Amino acid sequence: xxxxxxxxxxxxxxxxxxxxxxxxxxxxxxxxxxxxxxxxxxxxxxxxxxxxxxxxxxxxxxxxxxxxxxxxxxxxxxxxxxxxxxxxxxxxxxxxxxxxxxxxxxxxxxxxxxxxxxxxxxxxxxxxxxxxxxxxxxxxxxxxxxxxxxxxxxxxxxxxxxxxxxxxxxxxxxxxxxxxxxxxxxxxxxxxxxxxxxxxxxxxxxxxxxxxxxxxxxxxxxxxxxxxxxxxx
Length: 233
Ligand SMILES: [Zn+2]
Fold this sequence. Notes:
Protein name: Zinc metallopeptidase
Order of helices and strands: EEHHEEEHHHHH
Transmembrane segments: 15-33, 137-170, 202-225
Radius of gyration: 21 Å
InterPro entries: Zn_peptidase_2 (IPR007395)
Keywords: Membrane, Transmembrane, Transmembrane helix
Low-confidence stretches: 1-8
Strand order of the largest sheet: 3-5-4
Shape: elongated
Organism: Enorma phocaeensis
Bound molecules: zinc ion
Mean pLDDT: 92
């Protein structure tokens, strides 16, 4: 049964379901990564900090020119391909825990991907400017399409939104590959079983947040497709 709100556009129950599922997935996966990360943050590594192990991994992979810098926040760690630096949060930069090493090596994995021209990384980077544009305009185009009752405009909006879905999907292999590079390095560096096990747990929990984001965007795309095909009937 449709529910209507102030502006007069219909919000049906499937939309409410979509919002609820997206929120639930987001909260559940975010909670899981936070708990897993906190748990392994308390387990010491082999005495080395995240940045020290990441440095060793980078040097061993021919990425000596990649810098390691600090960034504020918690789990705000990332690799920036524009300046070819790893940005690690304080706990992971100087902390000597299993979690710090896992996250720092995951980011180093992205730098190695770039150095080796990993195909999904290159594709993802090529999509960045496109998605920066499409994610800003698709909603406006869609609302105008609904307001003016132009099916073509709604289809265009959905095509623009599809780039965001594609971006989320391409992000998955990039993230999983960076994690498997990190675990492989930790395993080969002889840091001990606890470091390998912890890295797997932390990085799997992190991967679930990307899976949830991809699922959410696919659901949103399906909803938009269903909505426009219904409105044509
Ligand atoms: Zn990553």
